[in-house]
Design brief:
5 helices; 7 strands; alpha+beta; Putative membrane protein YgcG; 2 domains; 313 residues; 3-stranded antiparallel sheet
């Protein structure tokens, strides 16, 4: 027998990662993780039907798809995967051994070579039968898991659409809030130094600086407020704390500073573009843009510039 009569075998190790019988797999909150694992057949290199490895839905099992599963389904899926993996690994080991034996017999030992080749042919046929039987036995469970994956993906897509819808609605509410004419301001002076005090007409104010006369200020929307503040060009801006607190409540989790920056690409206290974070820095900052309601006496100072942010000057 010539070695050239033996086919080339596709490299095959164990089905790794594999389903380990020693691992206790249980649903967590009615869910498990399933990971589809494929492998190639030894004889022709074609992909064999996949197996779904089942893992508990714990923090250490981040791979795979999280699907709904009862305890009975989970145990049945695990057992089916174990049976499939065990059958494939067993017959693959036999085929590899028969191939090695046939390839190792010297060509001039004709009788031994013929026996080794016959053993190879028998094992090859058994390999085909065993692979087909293992795939057919696993197929119902594979279909069941695929259905569970489709349901999980549909639910995930529905949740994503709902998040997008809520985000869009929140964006519209924030846009309407910016268009509401509720803002006002007043210029206050102390010892020849002026500042502007910003408040909302529809929110009870904190302790305004004594010289402030907010009643005389017009009601404007956010863009008009920004334009007025820039035209005043005063070094100090005092923001009324209750006004900012109410605005952040209406922003539903977005800080006033973040809201202002998203609309105008600048810091609400300095009216300048915020610097980019340092390169290579792990700093992430406050995702909401930070609260805008600091300070004492009900105020948040922008440029304080020597002015007190509470109880007058």
């Amino acid at each position: 027998m010539s070695r050239r009569e033996l086919p080339y075998l596709t490299h095959h190790g164990r089905l790794y990662p594999t389903q380990d019988a020693r691992d206790r797999v249980e649903p967590l909150h009615g869910r498990v993780r399933v990971h589809e694992h494929s492998f190639r057949r030894l004889l022709d290199g074609e992909r064999a039907p996949s197996v779904f490895l089942v893992r508990s839905a714990g923090p250490l099992s981040a791979t795979g798809v999280l699907v709904a599963s009862t305890a009975e389904e989970c145990h049945r899926w695990v057992r089916a995967a174990l049976d499939y993996v065990t059958a494939v690994d067993g017959i693959t080991t036999e085929l590899s051994a028969a191939h090695r034996r046939a390839a190792a017999v010297p060509w001039w030992r004709r009788l031994a070579a013929r026996r080794a080749f016959d053993d190879w042919e028998t094992t090859r046929q058994r390999y085909e039968d065993a692979m087909r039987a293992a795939a057919e036995a696993y197929e119902p469970v594979g279909r069941e898991i695929r259905r569970a994956i489709r349901v999980a993906e549909e639910e995930s897509a529905a949740r994503a659409r709902e998040r997008a819808r809520r985000a869009e609605e929140a964006g519209r509410r924030r846009a309407r809030l910016a268009e509401r004419a509720v803002w006002g301001w007043s210029v206050v002076t102390d010892e020849d130094r002026s500042a502007v005090y910003v408040f909302r007409h529809d929110v009870p104010r904190g302790e305004a600086p004594a010289p402030a006369t907010p009643q005389a200020s017009p009601s404007v929307d956010l863009a008009s407020l920004r334009r007025a503040l820039k035209e005043l060009d005063l070094p100090d801006v005092l923001w009324d704390g209750p006004a900012l607190a109410e605005t952040e409540r209406e922003l539903e989790g977005v800080g006033f500073g973040r809201w202002w920056r998203d609309r105008f690409s600048e810091d609400y206290r300095t009216f300048t573009a915020p610097p980019p974070p340092p390169r290579g820095s792990s700093y992430r900052g406050n995702p909401s843009g930070g609260t805008a309601t600091g300070g004492t006496g009900g105020f948040s100072g922008g440029h304080s510039g020597g002015f007190s942010c509470g109880g007058g000057f």
